[in-house]
Write a structure and sequence with these properties.
By secondary structure, the protein is α+β, with helices and mostly antiparallel strands. The chain has helices spanning about 1-5, 30-35, 55-60, 65-80; strands at about 20-25, 45-50. It has one domain (about 1-104).
């Protein structure tokens, strides 16, 4: 995987970061859940998430030249398969509602 090899190497260039990719499931058994809510299939096939503990952690990565170089590598890789002009970036704070609270 590109990210493991280039970004999250032992040098820990993006310290404190958790990177996830979630790929859409094309499973007919799940189509009923969409139609029951009046939803259409989303126009994308997956999402990527970068997790940090807080805004200061994000800014700290930006202040590190090695981390900025790693982010440039990530962007160059994303340009090969992500429709960047039609993609969204947004910041969230997770609020656990159901499930063990130690996961949030």
């Amino acid at each position: 995987m590109f990210v493991r090899q280039c970004l999250l190497s032992p040098s820990d260039r993006l310290a404190g970061c958790r990177y996830l990719q979630s790929h859409a499931l094309a499973d007919e058994k799940l189509a009923r859940a969409l139609s029951g809510r009046g939803c259409a299939l989303p126009p994308y096939d997956g999402i990527a998430e970068l997790w940090y503990d807080n805004a200061d952690a994000v800014l700290a990565v930006g202040a590190n030249e090695e981390a900025r170089a790693a982010r440039r590598l990530l962007l160059a890789d994303e340009e090969r398969f992500v429709d960047l002009p039609n993609s969204s970036i947004f910041w969230v704070h997770e609020h656990g509602i159901i499930g063990p609270s130690d996961n949030w």
